[in-house]
Amino acid sequence: MLRLREGSPWTGLWAVFFKELADHLSSIRIRLLEVLIALSALGAVYTASQTLRQTVSEDPFLFLKLFTTEQDPLPSFVAFLSFFVPLAAIALGFDALNGEYGRNTLSRVLAQPIYRDALLFGKFLAGLATLGVVLLALFLLVAGLGLLFLGVPPGGEEVGRALLFLLATLVYAGIWLALAILFSVLFRQPATSALAAIAVWLFFTIFWGIVAQLLAQALRPVDPFNPESALANAQALLFLSRFSPNTLYAETILVLLNPAVRSLGPVLFTQLEGALIGTPLPLSQSLLLAWPQLTGMLAACTLLFTLTYVLFQRREVRA
Amino acid sequence: MVIETHDLSKRYGRVVAVEGLNLQVGEGEVFGLLGPNGSGKTTTILMLLGLTEPTSGTAQVLGHDPVREPLSVKRQVGYLPDSVGFYGEMTAWENLRYTTRLLGLPRLEAEKRIGEVLERMGLADVAQRPVATFSRGMRQRLGLAEVLLKRPKVAILDEPTLGLDPEAALEFLAMIRGLKAEGITVLLSSHLLHQVQAICDRVGLFHRGRMVLVGTVRDLAERVLGGAYRIRLRASAGASLAERLKSLEGVGALRQQDGSWYLEARRDLRPELARAVLEAGGELLELGLEEPSLDEVYARYFQEVRHAEAA
């Protein structure tokens, strides 16, 4: 006897969404993150415009250089973002559900005529919307400052690339948000889930590169007399490092913001026959190049969220 | 029947939380689920609300199955969890407003109801204060306000008087009695038997996941304590009083404590007792009927169970 449960799982979704959004936007942690990110944006724009003024010349994609130019000791805006976005996402998600347990509000909220789905989706979407608002504001800030410093308006394709870059950043943020919410279901203490999420982030930021190198060396050792083995090694390394969302994100934005990038893996000389090195790709081709990476990030995000969903549905309400 | 269960059971692995529960609560009744902590009361409540799935058996609340139609059940059933929590940084009003959004009430209706329930629970003055500054008693009243917000047909209250000082507890019990006057069916759980026995029409006593006794307090007293009438007698008595009392017809257990006699009798023996004291040449100082206490029922029942187990 299989009967469907009544009603829609979305009942109450927007109530949860707007409450969480209001909580996020008025919370102290988002203030701190805003200050940090705004400072980094200012720094990045300043260095970029300083460097760019000296080499202004003939770059058709000057506007995009705003995001990617770096000058020691300051990294580029993109580098700043890839560092801060995971932290911001973790900060918004790490106490999403264990916080409700801790405050004894979960059973009261779930006794209202809503499903758990609404609570979980509402929280996730609110976190994503908050990150979206912050990212958009930040992006406009950088773009606006760039216009002031450089005085060169962006072309249509540049705006398209910049918006896609924003979208990719949001998907990347979604991965870390989903991870943080997953840990908030797994661990009862908010401190534990925050630490666990940061540990995962550190692992992928610092250690995965090293591990991937060691593994690639072990699986496909480089034979100095066999150039094919060097290629196999490089490909294995690339394959392994792409398990990290950081790599996927870095590759995506590299392609989107650098129209001159034509490949993300090792390229053989034979493949370059007839190619005009340095000529920019059209947006559609760049998008095609970054498509697997984008899909991969989306898949990771969906996977983590689904796991969270299953675990949360099975969780007992009482603490 | 407003609430009805058939062989409702819940097991966590090998641990039995609730076993073979057959519960029936009629409309407008105040029913008490009573028993020590961990005897299955809260699990029962969560199953009735569809917040946890029964391992076997079925439940019907207002004609709906909580497993398959939880929204219909939760729309009409108010729930006050034990140690109820609110979002501390939000005000009482904002907390209730969130609930009305989850209920899907339109704005004007919601604001009208919030005003009403806050007024009724005596929280109108503190409506704009963050809940973090509230005392336990105020939080509990805010919880009941939230229950009323739904205009429920059934109110389920889990340990409503736990952690309240005696005065606040009495006040809170009076509010629960107010619900009954409105025709709301109340199911409450408590381990503080003496506090809630006065307001329950019927009670079910829980022990290790089973509801072992069910009925009115008086019924249970009669069944378990042997005599429905418990009489307290104080007399400056002659030596032969004990003999005389024992020989009276209808006297059950008899014990002396702190200078008073406590008797259990099948009927009201007060006139006979007074006569007996006078005939024994003593002076009658005090003679009264005592309400049976649930604590005693409970203690006595489990004494018997233990004896039976030992035998």
From TrEMBL, chain A:
What superkingdom heads the lineage? Bacteria
Keyword flag Membrane? yes
The record lists the membrane-crossing segments as: 32-53, 73-97, 118-150, 162-187, 194-216, 290-312
Q: What is the lineage of its organism?
A: Bacteria, Thermotogati, Deinococcota, Deinococci, Thermales
Q: GO: which molecular function terms?
A: ABC-type transporter activity
List cellular component terms (GO).
plasma membrane
Which UniProt keywords are listed? Membrane, Transmembrane, Transmembrane helix
Q: Name one Pfam family in it.
A: ABC2_membrane_2
In terms of PANTHER family, this protein maps to:
ABC TRANSPORTER PERMEASE (PTHR43471), ABC-2 TYPE TRANSPORT SYSTEM PERMEASE PROTEIN (PTHR43471:SF14)
Give a yes or no for keyword Membrane in this entry: yes
- Could you tell me what this protein is called? ABC-2 family transporter protein
From TrEMBL, chain B:
Does the keyword section mention Nucleotide-binding? yes
- Keyword Ribosomal protein assigned to the entry: answer is no
The chain positions of domain ABC transporter read 3-233
* PROSITE patterns documented for this protein: ABC_TRANSPORTER_2
- Could you tell me the keywords of this UniProt record? ATP-binding, Nucleotide-binding, Transport
Q: Which InterPro entries match?
A: AAA+_ATPase (IPR003593), ABC_transporter-like_ATP-bd (IPR003439), P-loop_NTPase (IPR027417)
Q: Name one GO molecular function term.
A: ATP hydrolysis activity
Species assigned in the record: Calidithermus roseus
Family in the record: Belongs to the ABC transporter superfamily.
Q: Could you tell me which Gene3D superfamilies the record lists for this protein?
A: P-loop containing nucleotide triphosphate hydrolases
Q: Coding gene?
A: natA_2
Could you tell me which SUPFAM superfamilies the record lists for this protein?
P-loop containing nucleoside triphosphate hydrolases
Protein name stated in the entry: ABC transporter ATP-binding protein NatA
